[in-house]
Amino acid sequence: MEISETSKRDGPLSHIRVLDFSQTLAGPFASTILSDLGAEIIKVEKPGFGDQTRHFAPFQEGESHYFLSINRNKKSIAIDVKSEAGKQVIFDLIKKCDVLLENFRPGVMDKLGFGSEVIEELNPGMIQCSISAFGKTGPYGERAGYDIMVQAMSGVMSLTGEPDSPMRCGLPIGDLVGGLYGAISILGAIVEKQKTGKGLRADISLLDNLVSLLGYYAGKYYITGKSDQPIGSHHPFIVPYGTYQAKDGFMVLAVYTEDFWKKFTLAVDKPEWLIDPRFANNQQRVKNRDLLIDLVQQILIEKEISYWTRVFEEQDIPHSPILNVEQILGHPQIMARELVKKVEHPAYGSFQVIDSPIKYTNMDRGNPTPPPVLGEHTEDVLKDLLGYSQDRIEKITNK
Predict the structure, then answer these.
(1) Summary mean pLDDT of the chain
(2) What structural domains and CATH numbers belong to the chain?
(3) Which of 130, 91, 92, 126 is nearest to 197 (CA)?
(4) Which InterPro entries match (predicted)?
């Protein structure tokens, strides 16, 4: 689809236009990734209400922190998709877009009148991506589901937390990975369309996504027939590798190789550990994990984090203090990477957003644009993209 000059953003997807029905997190995160790569995103929202996350506190100048955080670089149109006039708008937009993204429960798009067969009739070759909790098939296919549910079902929670105390990940990892896989599926479909002209339909399941991340935990189960239990922030197969308390806070160590182990014993002034058969290699250290973790903890708690940071940097031992959100957002490394960008919002004013972590060293994509006000681009899209008359636009928007 040809993108108008006023709509273009730099990036490898600057020739792609996405019709985005998604709400809350998984879908909007996927479309944000695409927008960061230059795609034009037309976000369809309910008039007078919009994306559910527009109503999540805290607010500033009436704008939700949640919505502002994950909807940069997008256009918002407020359309009643259940009305006949609204349906026609969507039909016309389908003809003008390359990708359709939604994260409704399976079957909702069909009930709205925008099922896959309708889409293909209007725009053969259109790429379709559906993100849902359990996917479109299987006994759970029509169930509603949320991040915490798929974390629980996938095995992820069973591996997270302290022994006998499974915990949800601090980040909504199910939704975020859903957004990542959704974006990846669309990128793959774009390449396929370039080769064959065929528009693929991606069926992305949040549960599938997390199960796919089990990796070596699944491998271990297939070999041993046993499921792992949570062990806190320590590693199941490497010791010492985890969280430790220093005198004034917490930090992590990642003594991943035998070379690092030798350096570590020197850094903590325990050369005798190198000849101790209990710690002779990683296999023995894992076998005696509780003892070694306790011994390391006794040493680290005697000094401040700044001391250990200096010592471990001198010895080239992988480590890090545990930073909070404020500390990492102001960290020199993040500043040097220019990951935090300032934008000007028409209602909120000046504020900062996290920009895309994808960087091309030979392409400057510029600063992100601010998340849209509800319906901010309705008239522009209807007039400039669809060629509607002003009278027709006013009837649709009830102006």
Answers:
(1) 93
(2) 17-213+336-397 (3.40.50.10540), 241-323 (3.30.1540.10)
(3) 126
(4) CoA-transferase_III_domain, CoA-Trfase_fam_III, CoA-Trfase_III_dom3_sf, CoA-Trfase_III_dom_1_sf
Please name every residue paired with 254 in a beta bridge, in sequence order, or none if there are none: 241
Residue 341 in tokens: 């960008």
The β-bridge partners of 42 are 19, 75
Q: By three-state DSSP, how is residue 23 classified?
A: coil
* CA separation for the pair 372, 344 (Å, rounded): 11
- Distance between CA atoms of residues 120 and 110, nearest Å: 13
Q: What is the pLDDT of residues 138-148, one digit of tens each?
A: 999 888 899 99
- Residue 175 designated active-site: yes
Q: Which listed residue (51, 147, 175, 355) is catalytic?
A: 175
- Using one digit for the tens of pLDDT, what is the confidence trace for 346-384? 877 888 888 999 988 888 878 888 999 999 999 999 999
The strand ranges marked E within the chain are: 17-20, 40-45, 59-60, 63-64, 74-78, 99-102, 127-132, 161-162, 165-166, 201-205, 241-246, 249-254, 319-321, 340-345, 349-354
Half-sphere exposure of 196 (CA within 13 A, CB side): 10
Cα separation, 134 vs 225, whole angstroms: 26
SS (H, E, C) 272-322: HHHCCHHHCCHHHHHHCHHHHHHHHHHHHCCCCHHHHHHHHHHCCCCEEEC
The pLDDT of 327-354, averaged and rounded, is: 88
The identity of residue 127, as a single letter, is I
8 A C-beta contact, residue 384 and residue 4: yes
Residue 167 to residues 161, 176, 177, 230, 306, Cα–Cα distance (Å): 5, 17, 18, 9, 30
What is the total residue count of the chain? 399
Give the other-Cβ count within 10 Å of 133's Cβ.
Answer: 25
| Alpha carbons 55 and 66: distance in angstroms, whole number | 9
- Residue by residue, DSSP assigns 79-97 as --TTSHHHHHHHHHHHHH-
Q: Please report which helix (H) or strand (E) contains residue 357, including its range.
A: none
CA dist., res. 51 & res. 258, Å (int): 51
CA-to-CA separations, 14 to 186, 272, 286, 348, 371, in angstroms, rounded: 14, 60, 50, 27, 18
Please indicate, yes or no, whether the overall pTM of this predicted structure exceeds 0.85: yes
Rg (CA), the chain: 25
